[in-house]
Design brief:
Order of helices and strands: HHHHHEEEEEEEHEEHHHHH
Oligomer: single chain
Number of strands: 9
Largest sheet: 7 strands, mixed
Number of domains: 2
CATH superfamily of the largest domain: Butyryl-CoA Dehydrogenase, subunit A, domain 2
Strand content: 15-25%
């Protein structure tokens, strides 16, 4: 609770519209990252006994504030490095979490890693990147210095850095066996963090939309008092609440099982909520909501991008269905009632 409150207060203070506008122009928020770094937020999992449930409030608050730095990626890296027994380096760390296809080779005690990936968050700003590769068919966790990589900067529609990365026998800083986890675990962690960021952003959208509907008057009264608008605000509140519950439950389940099906449920449900809620918010705001001068677009553009990243709803719905079929009919009802 204290972590959630302190993080939310910090983000609300530091992440201003001016900071988001500067990030949109490609400026790195050095002061913000320095504050987060000094608070040890990016290295949360380096502390003994920290679970995924402990990280939830940080990621949700980051989504609510539209944090323009790779804190969720740093948390993913921190967790995976802690699982592999690799010391987390200082500075900015990101993850290469796309479906596996990277290879690692041990030559005379040194590890060399090769592979390509697109849409890697903040790769050009990071000093290190973490990736899961295969060495002689076995999965390993590799920590790479980004100076060893070829990086082509890019952006998503929300103007967040999403870079193309190529490693050609890049010498790893460290490499260790993955241990009982699947090679897709980083992709699942990415899906969970994006679902949680969406839940946080939806809470922000609900707040500013309800506030606007209470202040904007038409025909002598606030537009929020009109039945059509009031009904839409109720739907927006329902979607925000459903997204928050799905994300929070998935983090709690992941604390016990990092590959829980609750992650798929959370990504599907928050993605659906993002689509419905963004449409409602823009309908309530009308023309002013689509202008660059209004702050609504900072949230809705991120929702549209986060919804697609690490797999859209169709991808995770298919994965969840495949899991249910594989487990058999006897486990269907217990699984539905648990999730």
């Amino acid at each position: 609770m204290l972590l959630a409150e302190s993080a939310a207060d910090l983000f609300d203070t530091e992440v201003t519209p001016e900071l988001l506008e500067a990030a949109d122009r490609g400026e790195w928020p050095e002061k913000l990252w320095r504050i987060l770094d000094e608070a040890d937020y990016p290295r949360l999992f380096a502390e003994p006994g920290v679970t995924w449930a402990d990280a939830y409030p940080l990621v949700e608050a980051a989504g609510n504030a539209l944090l323009p730095v790779p804190l969720p990626e740093a948390l993913a890296a921190s967790w995976l490095l802690s699982q592999a027994g690799i010391e987390q380096p200082g500075g900015i760390v990101t993850v290469i979490a796309q479906p596996p296809g990277w290879l690692a080779e041990n030559r005379n005690g040194a590890w060399y890693v090769s592979g390509t990936a697109s849409g890697v968050p903040w790769a050009h700003a990071a000093e290190h990147a973490v990736v899961i590769a295969r060495a002689s068919g076995e999965p390993v966790v590799a920590l790479l210095a980004t100076a060893e990589l070829r990086i082509e900067p890019g952006l998503n529609a929300a103007h967040e850095p999403r870079d193309d990365v190529t490693a050609t026998e890049a010498k790893a800083v460290a490499c260790a066996p993955l241990g009982g986890l699947s090679t897709g675990i980083l992709y699942e962690f990415g899906a969970l963090t994006r679902a949680t960021q969406m839940a946080g952003a939806l809470r922000r959208i609900l707040r500013i939309t309800a506030h606007y509907a209470g202040e904007r008057t038409q025909f002598g009264r606030p537009i929020g008092q009109f039945q059509a608008i009031s009904q839409q605000l109720a739907v927006l509140a329902e979607e925000s609440t459903a997204a928050t519950i799905a994300a929070a439950f998935a983090w709690a389940e992941a604390a016990e099982d990092p590959e829980t099906p609750a992650i798929a449920v959370a990504k599907v449900r928050t993605g659906q909520a993002a689509g419905t809620s963004a449409a409602i918010a823009h309908a309530v705001f009308g023309a002013i909501g689509i202008t660059a001068e209004h702050s609504l677009h900072f949230a809705t553009r991120r929702l549209w991008c986060w919804r697609a990243e690490y797999g859209p709803e169709r991808f995770w719905a298919h994965a969840l269905g495949a899991t249910i079929v594989r487990q058999g009919s006897a486990r269907l009802w217990p699984g539905v009632t648990v999730l």
